[in-house]
Specification:
Elements lengths: L1 H15 L7 H29 L1 H9 L14
Helix pairs in contact: 1-2, 2-3
Length: 76
């Protein structure tokens, strides 16, 4: 859900650029939104680790931080 919400804030200024000019402040707002959501995800992960412990750590190894962005597989 967070990834979709982040994409909404990235795409909204681009879609509205037909009616409202895309400015430097639009680009800054997009960057701030991405940083904020990434920070929010890391805080939520810490809370979930405290809540569920090793079970959540094992989940984090299998599932990427942002769904839709593939996690690289390490070969041994």
């Amino acid at each position: 859900g967070v990834f979709g919400f982040m994409l909404w804030f990235i795409c909204l200024p681009i879609f509205l650029s037909v009616y409202v000019p895309f400015t430097f402040l639009s680009a800054v707002a997009i960057i701030i939104a991405i940083v904020y959501y990434y920070y929010m995800i890391s805080v939520e992960e810490k809370i979930n680790v405290q809540k569920w412990g090793d079970e959540y750590r094992a989940y984090m190894k299998d599932v990427p931080r942002l769904i839709g962005i593939p996690k690289s597989k390490k070969t041994e």
